[in-house]
Write a structure and sequence with these properties.
Blueprint (H helix, E strand, L loop, with lengths): L3 E6 L4 H4 L3 H4 L10 H13 L7 E4 L3 H14 L3 E3 L21 H7 L20 H18 L4 E5 L1 H12 L14 E7 L2 E9 L15
Length: 216
């Protein structure tokens, strides 16, 4: 059977719904999901029932872990925290490496996290150009697809969706991809060539965004 890699973006963010949250947040660059974002993640999990996913990888940011947790609960799978799927560490968006919950603290809150797994690729702040983050996400997707032979799901950010897809397709020019919140990319390997069978599908969502946002 050909290998399938699914790539999903996290659900809606609390700071997208309530921008004032940022001003008093303990970790302002690591927002959780909003209430409707949780619903989106649940709907994404239901969409993936029966798709034979064997491994779930998530960026270490809270919104991606929360999204992955909803999916993992539905599919009864553990979550592997992979830093290579992280948000674009853009100095124009954040003045320093963003503070996130430690993995041990995340695992206390989300027991499905596999603490035996260690990130294969760790990004460095700052990532000053889009090319840097796209290449990093692409290397991560290729590394995980090669190491884990079964069907896998990568839960990340807008840049993870774009870069991971580009890395597997082997393209350097950014393809037209719908990287909306809780979108779903499906890439299937046929005779060592990756083909995109779903491009940012959001048909599983009851509520979708009108304007795609990648940062605050």
């Amino acid at each position: 059977m050909p290998q399938t890699v699914w790539i999903a973006r996290h659900g809606n963010r609390l700071d997208f719904v309530n921008p004032e949250w940022f001003n008093t947040a303990e970790r302002p660059y690591d927002p959780p999901l909003s209430k409707d974002g949780i619903v989106q993640a649940q709907q994404l999990g239901q969409r993936l029932v029966g798709e034979n996913i064997a491994h779930i990888f998530a960026s270490p940011f809270l919104r991606t872990v929360e999204t992955a947790n909803q999916i993992a609960t539905t599919l009864d799978l553990p979550i592997k925290i992979e830093a290579g799927l992280s948000e674009w560490l853009n100095p124009a968006w954040m003045p320093a490496m963003p503070e996130k919950m430690p993995t041990a603290a995340l695992a206390e809150r989300f027991p499905r996290i596999d603490l035996s797994y260690s990130s294969r690729i760790v990004p460095e702040y700052p990532e000053t150009t889009a090319q840097v983050v796209l290449e990093r996400a692409g290397r991560t997707a290729k590394r995980l697809a090669a190491e884990f032979e079964y069907d896998i799901l990568l839960v990340g950010h807008g840049a993870s969706v774009l870069g991971g897809t580009m890395g597997l397709l082997g393209v350097t020019t950014e393809p037209k991809i719908n990287a909306a919140l809780c979108c779903l990319i499906k890439l299937v390997c046929h005779s060592q060539e990756w083909l995109m069978e779903l491009n940012g599908d959001i048909s599983h969502l009851s509520q979708t965004e009108k304007v795609i946002r990648f940062n605050r």
